[in-house]
Write a structure and sequence with these properties.
two-stranded antiparallel ribbon, alpha+beta, 64% helix
Length: 70
C-alpha cells in the first residue's frame, strides 16, 4: 500500500565548524536515497571543513611559534 511505501524517515544533523543543526524529513521510498545521499554529503563536507580548519589553525600556530623562537 502507499502507507507502507511512505514510512521511512531520515534525519540529518549538521553544522559546519560546530556540528549542531538538525533537520528531519519523512519521505517516500523514491526520495529516500536522495536524502540519504545528501546526509552523507553534508556529513563529510562538515567533517572535512572542520578538519581543514583545525589543521590550518594548528599550522599557523606552529608557524608563528617557530618564527617567534627565532
Amino acid at each position: 500500500s502507499s502507507s507502507s511505501r511512505c514510512c521511512c524517515c531520515c534525519c540529518c544533523c549538521c553544522c559546519c565548524y560546530r556540528c549542531c543543526c538538525c533537520c528531519c524529513c519523512c519521505c517516500c521510498s523514491y526520495y529516500y536515497y536522495y536524502y540519504y545521499y545528501y546526509y552523507y554529503y553534508y556529513y563529510y563536507y562538515c567533517l572535512f571543513s572542520h578538519l581543514s580548519l583545525s589543521l590550518s589553525l594548528s599550522l599557523s600556530l606552529s608557524l608563528s611559534l617557530s618564527l617567534s623562537l627565532k
